[in-house]
Amino acid sequence: MSQPKEDPVVDPADANAAPASASEMTATQIYKRLLGYVRPFVPAFVVSMLGYLIFAVTTPATAAWLGWTIDQIEAQNDAARILAPLLCVLIVLARGVGGFMGHYALEYVANHVVHRLRCQVLDQLMSVPLGYYDQSSMGRLVSKVTYDVLQIKGAATNAVTVVLREGMTVIGLLGWLFWVNWRLSMVFLLVAPCMAFIVHLATKRYRRYSKQMQDSMGDVTQLANETIKGQRVIRTFNATDFVSGRFSDSSERNRRQNMKMVATQATATPLIQIIVSVAMAILIWLALGPEFLGNASAGDVVTFLTLAGMLSKPLRQLSGVNAIIQRGISASYSIFELLDAEQEKNLGQHRADRVQGNLVLSDVSFAYDPESPVLQTINLDVKAGTTLALVGRSGSGKSTLVNLLPRFYDITAGNITLDAVELSEYELGNLREQIAIVSQDVVLFEGSVADNIAYGIADKVSHEQILEAAKNAHADEFIQSLPQGYDSPVGDGGSLLSGGQRQRLAIARAFLKDAPVLILDEATSALDTESEQHIQQALNQLMRGRTTFVIAHRLSTIENADEIVVMDQGRIVEQGSHKALLEKDGHYARLHRMQFNDGDGVLFAEGARPAESSQPAEGSQSAEGSQSAEGSQSAEGSEPAKGSRPAEGSRPAKGSDDAVTS
Ligand SMILES: Nc1ncnc2c1ncn2[C@@H]1O[C@H](COP(=O)(O)OP(=O)(O)OP(=O)(O)O)[C@@H](O)[C@H]1O
Ligand SMILES: [Mg+2]
After folding, report:
1. Domain total for the chain?
2. What is the 3 state secondary structure string of 541-570?
3. 3-class secondary structure, 41
4. Nearest to 329 by CA among 646, 632, 655, 35
């Protein structure tokens, strides 16, 4: 991120810069773009200007009224006794009405602009490619929606109010002064360059500090977020001192930048006032000279001096408003930068009601960062309705591979087709309709259990359908036992539910979505054996008739897959059915031995499995399995399956622990 460039008025070199993107925008282009947001509200803006015009006129009018009244007192005009107080009330009334019109109409415009910007930012956050999030800090993004937008509102309301109201007041006052005596008023023109110079210096500093303040606000937001989310970790690792230290540093940095901004502002404003008062002093000195006094009434003199004296307040306000404007410019820059970020490519036109689910990957390569390829020449042919299991070391690229299917990332080479149509030819939304994902970290949203199951499609499904999905996901039982059943809140991020319960909601979601392609990325890895068994049953049911990609570290859960693919360092190193791969005695067989040589592995060695074991969950990850791993004898010990338990069952359960918890 770079600073917005100086205004071309200040720096002519940039005057011709094309408004291609935020990073090349000059301040003037940013103003223009902001004005674009005001365009739909031109009538309100005009009302506001009119209001402030009325307000502005009342200031010199007050001075004129004062001078006129004094002259009337001198002339002993009886009529003035009624007229003067009446005019006084009228002026204040006009000022009040003008102020209201100006203020209300401007806030109306500003709040609309902020609302639009905020919504655009959020829409854009949902349109940028996922890679954008890999490169941005969460806190910075959140503070764009919160802090930056508010800065723009500040600039749009406070600053524009002051600029309009006080600006017009200054123009009104100066105009009148020149009309009364232009020669004397020339004094003000003499000091104008000095004032412009101070404003220019201050502007540069404001902009620098605004940018730094935004960044440090991002850090503050980020750390606050992390602290709130990571409470458990922070407490278990006794990291409170560390966290509060880091937070205090960030907050302190923000405080210092704020103070620098304030220091600039606090210096610039009195400096400008001093210059104005010097001008005033010269003016008074001249005004009291015989040339001026000679042919003017006392009222004229009072009017003139009051007019000049009234200049000081609007000038002071105008000089202070610069800081707010610069903060607004910096914030707009930050927001336009996000709004200008390239969106996810969605050029495809193809729409399918429901695909069959034939997926073919040919020579697919992918890299998050061009320097280091993550997937290399992957070739796969997955027939509709079959299950493909991906196994391999952590970091071998399994999740990356499945993330290419809903086009979370675009492949760098090769192609992927779904029902013989390239993924990029599908309309993105349509493609994603065809795919359901259940992953290890279930994301639940604020709301009820039912809301979460029907997330995004609440208006398209009936309560019965939600119920059925929950039943299929073996979630109905626990949901019924919640205090408010399906209307129970899940808490922030699902914190009121257990990991297994959350997982079952995710599965229910997938049932309800009923997509022909299913991705299960470590869908059961965080669970104990018993809940996994439940969930595995649900998953087996879910997988029926869908093209399924399963990623699992626990090999027992994927033995029944039609095809097992072993990945290593982004390549497919082995491929085949469970049986074929075991016979081949390569990577898979080795992995399998590692997981199964102790405890439950041997328990379920070929031939020794109980009959129900055709379902992976039932056979390989039964409750007995885990018990035997611990070497504990249970009542079921007399069951035939146990009989096959070899002596190794009593060995230290290290291997089986891995198998259970990995
Ligand atoms: N968003 C990302 N940006 C950059 N690199 C990434 C990103 N996500 C993953 N990687 C890298 O890509 C490689 C493959 O990661 P991936 O998540 O696909 O592995 P995995 O096989 O799913 O591992 P695990 O079994 O631990 O889930 C890793 O080296 C990882 O560091
Ligand atoms: Mg993964």
Report:
1. 2
2. HHHCCCEEEEECCCHHHHCCCCEEEEEECC
3. helix
4. 35
Which residues have any ligand 1 atom within 6 Å of their CB?
Answer: 134, 368, 374, 392, 394-400
Least trusted range by pLDDT, from 208-222, 329-343, 595-609: 595-609
Here the CATH number for the domain that contains residue 294 is 1.20.1560.10
Residue 520: both structure tokens together: 């299960």
pLDDT digits (tens, 9 = 90+) for 548-591: 999 987 777 788 889 999 999 999 999 999 989 989 888 888 88
328: domain range? 21-339
Residue type, 320: G
Under 8 Å between Cβ of 398 and 551: yes
The rounded distance, in Å, linking the Cα atoms of 222 and 247 is 9
Nearest-atom number in ligand 1 for the CA of 397 is 18
To 5 degrees, how large is the angle CA 214–CA 217–CA 220? 160
| Per-residue pLDDT band at 412 (split at 50, 70, 90) | very high
* Cα distances (angstroms) measured from residue 138 to each of 119, 210, 230, 452, 506: 18, 20, 14, 24, 24
Distance in angstroms (rounded) separating the CA atoms of residues 636 and 485: 35
Largest CA-CA distance found in the chain, in angstroms, rounded: 125
- Each residue of 22-46: pLDDT tens digit? 556 787 888 888 888 888 999 999 9
Residue nearest to atom 8 of ligand 1 (CA): 400
What is the pTM for the complete model shown? 0.73
Which of 128, 135, 371, 374 to mutate to test ligand 1, by most ligand atoms within 8 A of the CB atom?
374
* Minimum CA distance residue for ligand 1 atom 30: 395
Contact call for residues 123 and 100 (beta carbons, < 8 A) = no
pLDDT at 515: 92
Last residue of some domain: 291, 311, 339? 339
Q: Would 30 be classed as within a structural domain?
A: yes
Measured CA to CA, the distance from residue 628 to residue 218 in angstroms comes to: 52
Q: Is residue 393 part of a domain?
A: no
Tokens of 297: 């009434």
Mean local confidence (pLDDT), 597-607 = 40
CA–CA dist 456, 452 (Å, integer):
8
Q: Collect all residues with Cβ–Cβ distance below 8 Å to 29 and sequence separation of at least 6.
A: 17, 19
Asked whether residue 272 is assigned to any structural domain, the reply reads yes
Check whether 655 has a pLDDT greater than 80. Answer: no
From its phi and psi, is residue 357 left (phi > 0), alpha (psi between -120 and 50) or beta?
A: left
- List the residue whose alpha carbon is closest to atom 25 of ligand 1: 394
Nearest alpha-carbon partner for 467 in 478, 475, 456: 475
Q: What is the pLDDT of residue 21?
A: 57
In which residue are the tokens 């410019």 written? 329
Q: Is residue 394 domain-resident?
A: no
Residue 199 in tokens:
């404003």
The mean pLDDT value for 196-219 works out to 86
Out of 287, 318, 339, pick the residue that ends a domain. 339
Render pLDDT for 348-394 as a digit per residue (tens, 0 to 9): 899 999 999 999 999 999 999 888 899 999 999 999 999 999 998 88
